[in-house]
Design brief:
By secondary structure, the chain is of the alpha/beta class. Helix content is about 45%, strand content about 15%. It is an enzyme of class 1 (oxidoreductase).
């Protein structure tokens, strides 16, 4: 078993399902103490239970990433429980698509910008503020998307804008704070094995048949494969990787 994160504390947002849960489990498997955060307690508690079943240590904290006060509470709870904040994975995000930009409700625009952009800004600000006080600094990985900087799709203008902003924020923050010992990168997943990649009314088996012809690899990425990319960037294996945006998308943006 790899122990790349032994003795380190990791914080993962949006950890109640999908990529967030897979990342939290992978970090715990490699030795990290993990704080899992999200808006709903029950799925977070399920993630904690899965970690503890494997012999790991975890804490669930409910929080709305778009609220600055929640970030102060979240970082404080992390440090109070485990003593440090060494790795942060800003995965929480929302997707509301299907309409051309001219028909997009303003509420949908704000919902995606509030969580996907403001949420990442507030996360970075709170995480860096603590990490730069630590002698060992820290590593942050933001979850962006291939939709935005790398590709476009009809009916997802707000989501594309929000995720392109995550990439821009990542690179700007990386430049601002590498001298503080805080190393910041992003992962941009394409279609992965989550509900977000299902089209309206589509089943998982129907998705398998569709992407067989749409993606060069012929399948969507497993959440564990995206998590592996996150762990690489958060680990000492990527000690000189700063401000990158690592695409994991089965070749879909080629």
């Amino acid at each position: 078993m790899s122990t790349r994160f032994l003795g380190r504390t990791a914080l993962v947002t949006g950890a109640g399902s999908g990529i967030g849960r897979a990342t939290a489990l992978a970090l715990a498997t490699e030795g990290a103490q993990v704080v899992v955060a999200g808006r709903t307690a029950t799925p977070l508690d399920e993630t904690v239970a899965l970690i503890e079943e494997r012999g790991g240590k975890a804490l669930a904290v409910t929080a709305d990433v778009s609220r600055a006060a929640d970030w102060q509470t979240l970082v404080a709870a992390t440090v109070d429980r485990f003593g440090s904040l060494d790795v942060a994975v800003n995965n929480a995000g929302v997707f509301r698509g299907g309409q051309p930009l001219a028909d997009l409700p303003e509420t949908d625009w704000h919902a995606q910008l509030d969580t996907n952009v403001t949420g990442v800004f507030l996360a970075l600000r709170a995480e860096i503020a603590h990490m730069r006080t630590q002698p060992t600094g820290g590593a942050i990985v933001n979850i962006a998307s291939t939709i935005g900087r790398h590709t476009r799709r009809p009916g997802v203008a707000a989501y594309a804008a929000s995720k392109a902003a995550v990439t821009a924020l990542t690179r700007a923050a990386a430049l601002d704070h590498i001298a503080d010992g805080v190393r910041i990168n992003a992962v941009s997943p394409g279609a992965s094995a989550t509900t977000m990649s299902l089209r309206p009314g589509e089943t998982e088996s129907e998705r398998v048949e569709r992407v067989r012809h749409e993606l060069p690899l012929g399948r969507v990425s497993a959440t564990e494969e995206v998590a592996a990319a996150v762990l690489y960037l958060a680990s000492d294996d990527a000690a000189s990787v700063v401000g990158t945006d690592l695409v994991v998308d089965s070749g879909g943006s080629l």
